[in-house]
Amino acid sequence: MEHQHASDPPPPWKAAGYRIQLAREADLPRLAGVERAAARQFPGRLIPPAQRAGVVPLAVLREAWNEGRLWVALSPAGLPVGFAVAGTCDGEAFLIELDVHPAHQCLGLGRALVARVAQWARTAGYAALALTTFASLPWNAPFYARLGFQALVPGACGPALAERLAAEARLGLRERVAMRLSLR
Ligand SMILES: CC(C)(COP(=O)(O)OP(=O)(O)OC[C@H]1O[C@@H](n2cnc3c(N)ncnc32)[C@H](O)[C@@H]1OP(=O)(O)O)[C@@H](O)C(=O)NCCC(=O)NCCS
């Protein structure tokens, strides 16, 4: 994962007054709206309507918040407009969910949230950060590849990651791929 150098200009989100930080309790009920708005970008051929409307349950967000593995992007007005939830899978760190509201995309917030999750994972001693995503959508697998993630062939997935892909396929999601960023 690349690093910001002192001489680099600040990323657009920072220059515009956004912040990335651990979520606050008051952010939790606002995240479903961000997730639903972001999910509207997924084409219907890749995800059934019922799945597109689904969100990370509040109890899951609350547990992640409680354990310090939920981060938010805050707008200049202080409202959450993006978030990332991390967990574990097969003994490695796992990006459970990443969303940025469409009105606030392409400012580098997604990239910065992934960097925050990778930093958490590295500090916690995990060897890698894995995720599952859509293989062909430009803001999914190609975006993660630019951040250093590599696609895993099915045989290279651990049992829990393989089961996660299988569960996604059962829900009707198509063209999903697992990816992994080595942290060592
Ligand atoms: C993925 C997502 C979080 C990225 O958020 P973001 O704040 O826009 O991210 P960034 O600004 O850091 O970067 C987005 C990248 O996608 C690219 N991108 C976005 N939309 C694109 C499009 N329609 N066509 C081509 N590239 C696109 C941008 O050019 C940028 O690439 P770069 O940083 O390598 O130049 C956001 O698109 C989103 O919420 N999507 C819907 C939910 C989703 O896909 N979540 C991830 C599932 S694993």
Automatic annotation (TrEMBL):
The keyword GTP-binding does not apply. Residues 18-168 form the N-acetyltransferase domain. InterPro entries: Acyl_CoA_acyltransferase, GNAT_dom. The keyword Acyltransferase applies. Keywords: Acyltransferase, Transferase. PROSITE patterns: GNAT. SUPFAM superfamilies: Acyl-CoA N-acyltransferases (Nat) (SSF55729). It comes from the Bacteria. This is GNAT family N-acetyltransferase.
